[in-house]
């Protein structure tokens, strides 16, 4: 096993504002021999998600922060290339917490990595980091369990062309809702309307969100799935209906703030409209991931569900590739490819 060298990114410092190159330590070390009950996974694709920015901060959250000098936490898919466990065989494809590194070694039953088998014959591997992975689970359960959509309702989703947003919109359409996306740029808006089947999309970079909501949501907003926070959340709150549901998934506009996070100024709209605002943390639904994968896999097989991935090659590009998320440069689910399939 020592013939393998593992290149990995470790957290060197807690970022202030945008993560810098100096916040990372690039390490290359030999891969150790595996012990009884362990596996060695070669990482192929790594999922880059906005949540990673929060994991780099110290303080109480839904998951412990990444420690200084720890391999950066990330989900990934890979191939088992050595096994001393009856649970996984050499050649199995798996999804789990690989971290930002070329190889993962440890107990097959490791609860943090939580590896499970995936089948590349059913869907291409990158799909298991998109609609069939954590972003898809977040969208599916966030919309259905927290948002509780009913046919005929109007659903608005921000970050509509991103990993979570594209799934939210398509699940809402399957449930008979009117879906309006918010995205940055004409290309992204055209994509969610023409390829994903959204009813409309507001280009927040070039158009007024307020005017767009008036035009495309003439009967108000029943569900708002929020991926961005900030001013867009405030604007949508002025258009919500009685008993509206606001699903708080993320606030990418606020993640790199050096000043306190900006809360919604229009929160009294929740009172006036007897609405509710509730957070979604995907790990709460781990026991039910199978049902979401089965349902969305079925829609995919029927040609009723589409995804888009933005794949960047090379582990050495990680610091710059991660920043694409916060600069709005990715188009679809951002994935880092670190090995050939």
Automatic annotation (TrEMBL):
Molecular function via GO: oxidoreductase activity, acting on the CH-CH group of donors, NAD or NADP as acceptor
**What range(s) does the Enoyl reductase (ER) domain occupy?**
17-336
Q: Which positions are tagged coiled coil?
A: none
Q: Which Pfam families match?
A: ADH_N_2 (PF16884), ADH_zinc_N (PF00107)
Alphabetized, the UniProt keywords read: Oxidoreductase
- The molecule here is called NADP-dependent oxidoreductase
């Amino acid at each position: 096993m020592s013939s393998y060298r593992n290149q990995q990114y470790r957290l060197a410092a807690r970022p202030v504002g945008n993560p810098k190159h100096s916040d990372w330590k690039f390490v290359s070390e030999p891969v150790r021999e595996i012990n009884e009950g362990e596996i060695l996974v070669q990482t192929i694709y790594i999922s880059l998600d906005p949540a990673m920015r929060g994991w780099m901060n110290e303080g109480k959250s839904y998951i412990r922060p990444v420690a200084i000098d720890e391999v950066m936490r990330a989900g990934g898919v890979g191939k088992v290339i050595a096994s001393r466990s009856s649970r996984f065989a050499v050649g199995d494809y798996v999804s789990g917490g690989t971290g930002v590194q070329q190889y993962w070694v440890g107990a097959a039953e490791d609860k943090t990595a939580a590896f499970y088998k995936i089948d590349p014959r059913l869907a291409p591997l990158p799909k298991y980091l998109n609609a069939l992975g954590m972003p898809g689970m977040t969208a599916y359960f966030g919309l259905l369990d927290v948002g509780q959509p009913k046919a005929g309702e109007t659903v608005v989703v921000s970050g509509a062309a991103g990993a979570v947003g594209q799934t939210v919109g398509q699940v809402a359409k399957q449930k008979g809702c009117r879906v309006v996306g918010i995205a940055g740029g004409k290309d992204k808006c055209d994509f969610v309307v023409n390829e994903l089947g959204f009813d409309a999309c507001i280009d927040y970079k070039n158009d007024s969100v307020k005017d767009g909501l008036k035009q495309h949501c003439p009967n108000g907003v029943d569900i708002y799935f929020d991926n961005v926070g900030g001013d867009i959340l405030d604007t949508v709150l002025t258009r919500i209906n009685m008993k509206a549901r606001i699903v708080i998934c993320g606030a990418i506009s606020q993640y790199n703030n050096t000043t306190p996070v900006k809360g919604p100024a229009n929160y009294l709209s929740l009172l006036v409209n007897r609405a509710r605002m509730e957070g979604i943390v995907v790990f709460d639904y781990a026991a039910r991931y199978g049902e979401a994968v089965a349902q969305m896999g079925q829609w995919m097989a029927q040609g009723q569900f589409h995804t888009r991935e933005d794949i960047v090659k090379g582990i050495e590009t990680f610091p710059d590739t991660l920043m694409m998320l916060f600069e709005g440069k990715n188009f679809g689910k951002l994935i880092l490819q670190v090995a050939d399939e």
